[in-house]
Amino acid sequence: MTFAARGALAAINLGPAAGKVADSKEDRLGMRITRVHIEGFKRFSHFDLELNPVFNVIVGDNETGKSSVLEAIGLVLTGKYDGRLIQYAIDPYLFNAAIVADYFQKRQNNQNTPSPLVLVEAYLQPDGGGALLGGAQGHEQQQGRRLRRTLADD
Asked: Is-contact 113 107, C-beta < 8 A?
């Protein structure tokens, strides 16, 4: 899988909602996604993407996961997949097939193993690059704010 990632996606800007009064400097400036981390989602067992602050493009052959990156970002930002809240849209195809196969193989061999999960994280920074907002603990320590969605067995 090859991603020409001098970033990915086209200028994502999470500014204040229309008609909303800007409460803070970060609201006035908006927020941008600086990094996306995906585990166990569709084709991705583990995937990290650093985004360019100006413009991003995803390039790849068919069925390499370009749309899946966008779906994962949509999932972490909205809590929705395929237009429905994720709790009503859980589908076996959301989970990485190799991870699921490995899980069942280990269970057949009576090995205790955690259930497969999907993890999507988006790291945000104020648009305009000012001072970051403190450390967020995620896959790695990253300055800024982090949004996280996890699909896992309870």
From this structure: yes
The pTM (predicted TM-score) of the whole model is 0.73
Joined tokens for residue 144: 């800024």
Q: What domains lie within the chain, and their CATH numbers?
A: 25-151 (3.40.50.300)
Please give the backbone phi and psi of residue 3, each rounded to the nearest 5 degrees, phi first. -120, 120
DSSP 8-state class, residue 87? G
Rounded CA gap, 18 and 143, in Å? Answer: 27
With H, G, I as helix, E, B as strand and everything else as coil, classify residue 11: coil
SS3 state at 75:
helix
**Token pair for residue 124?**
């945000």
Q: Which residues contact 61 (CB under 8 A, 6 or more apart)?
A: 2
Place of tokens 């067995």: 153
pLDDT for 13-36, tens place per residue?
A: 333 443 444 555 545 558 899 999
